[in-house]
Amino acid sequence: MTLRGRKPILVAVAAQGAAVIAVLFLVQGHFHVTGTDLPTWVKVAAASSAAAATSALFRAALGWIAFMATLPALFAAALYIDLPVWIPGAVLLVLVLLLRNVVGDRVPLYLSNAETVDRLSDLLPNDAPVAVLDLGCGTGSVPLALARRQNNPDSRFVGVENAPLPYAIARLRSFLTRDRRVDIRWGSLWNTDLQGWNLVYAFLSPHPMAALYDKASREMSSGAVFVSNSFEVPGHEPDRRVPIESGRATALLLWNMG
User: Fold this and answer.
1) Residue 131 and residue 197 in contact, taking contact as beta carbons nearer than 8 Å
2) Is the distance from CB of 73 to CB of 18 less than 8 angstroms?
3) Which of 13, 114, 184, 256 is the most buried (most CB within 10 A)?
4) What does the alpha-carbon distance between residue 105 and residue 231 come to, in Å, rounded to a whole number?
5) How do residues 3-16 score in pLDDT, each as one tens digit?
6) For 82-129, how does the pLDDT look when each residue is reduced to its tens digit (9 = 90+)?
7) Cβ neighbours, 10 Å, residue 248
8) How far apart are the C-alpha atoms of 101 and 3, rounded to whole Å?
């Protein structure tokens, strides 16, 4: 069973639903035997265990499993301090919308810094038309910034994102710039055709890199450049490394396709 293609909000609902059911069965069974209620900490422990086990069953990332396990305690704390119960629910919803890719593809939301954009811009011609694709573009910073640095009216700067909140932000930013060369698309990187792009950029995580490199090798045109921010591809040494001194002091890894 894999989470790729599943809706993370449904996974979250399944995990918390399992937590509720586990607590109900436990409380009813204990009351039937002893005639007393269970301590709150036992209920929370049971709910957390059920939520974590359900998340693990769906092969969620470790961080997501930990969050699902913590959520029952947050709900219990909200009730204890008389906080409206919709508040932790709203927090869960925002996190799911923001971190959707953590659940399925184990890809956190990483934002490229200004130096990274500068180094990417150095890889592009100033005036000749260029087609750039950002896989997992987050809030759209890279395609928008590269478009500002490149003047050719026939260039294209496309970002693909499928975490709802970052996608909405990227779309709004693109709309406000009024630059028709920039296009933010809703979609999965696995369903995105990589043929016809001069440069494909990815700032993801170690988990998908081997499969993504195989996809790039099959689909990208000869002479195109595949760029990974920070994360290596096992068994494939990059053709070039461009150091990034600021932030985490890492590098852009470049492969010349074909």
Assistant:
1) yes
2) no
3) 184
4) 15
5) 444 456 677 778 87
6) 666 666 666 666 666 555 555 555 555 567 888 999 999 999 988 899
7) 10
8) 10
